Amino acid sequence: MNSTAARKIFLKVFIAFLSLTALVAILSVLSGDFGEIQIKILATTFSISAASICSMSSAAFMERRKRRSLGLSGIYCAAFAALLVICGVWGEIKQDEFWKVVGTVIVFAIALAHAFLLVLPELDERHRWTQKASSISIGVLSLQIVAAIWGEIDDGSYYKLLAVVSIFVVLLTLVIPILMKMRKGTRPQSETLILSRNEEGIFIDSEGVMYEVKTINSDPH
Predict the structure, then answer these.
(1) Alpha carbon 41 to chain centroid distance?
(2) Cβ partners under 8 Å of residue 69, min gap 6
(3) Does the pTM exceed 0.90?
(4) d(C-alpha 8, C-alpha 5), whole Å
(5) What would the pLDDT profile of 108-127 be if each residue is shown by its tens digit?
(6) How many angstroms separate the CA atoms of 21 and 33, rounded?
(7) What are 35-91's pLDDT values in tens digits?
(8) First to last CA, the chain
(9) Contact status, residue 87 vs residue 97, Cβ threshold 8 Å
(10) Quick check: 58 and 75 in contact, CB under 8 A?
(11) What is the DSSP letter of 188?
(12) What are the φ/ψ torsions at residue 91 (nearest 5 degrees)?
């Protein structure tokens, strides 16, 4: 299965489970019965929907950047996060260590999906540093969050630093799409292609690539 087909499947799964989430919520509101079972169903459907969104980002990254192993890691991480949440909710697991693992996997799944989305746009050469900076800052932020989860950090200065990194991530998340629009607005530079015609009437460039040339407009005026 190629990445394009995978994206379509994840999109269909996302729509299906998002619709199911809405249906369960509507029925619970109308019936006045919003108990533990309904909460578990909503948590399950929402987890699968969120995993589908992250997986779509990873599949798009695989298709655009041709890095299959890295893209698959994002898909596996998202799927594993959804599985852990579902097991924890339905199994009514209470151990703090388990939910710390769940939180860690969720953070990394979201971080990968976020980073993949920001490296997808084609930017001008002078602006591509923003994509590298976004990947680094997202990685730093995710590690900070995971450290806070496991270390149960209660230090105001630590969370101030975390907030600074978060602001930088948000800034780059907003700037990169704008830079992509700026690139689309610029006119591409013209290129000159020099062809030579061989005895068989086939046109060939300096690298040996063959071309078929047809007249489109015989009247330049």
Answers:
(1) 25
(2) none
(3) no
(4) 5
(5) 999 999 999 999 888 888 88
(6) 15
(7) 788 788 888 888 888 888 888 888 888 877 777 788 889 999 999 999 999 999 999
(8) 50
(9) no
(10) yes
(11) P
(12) -85, -5
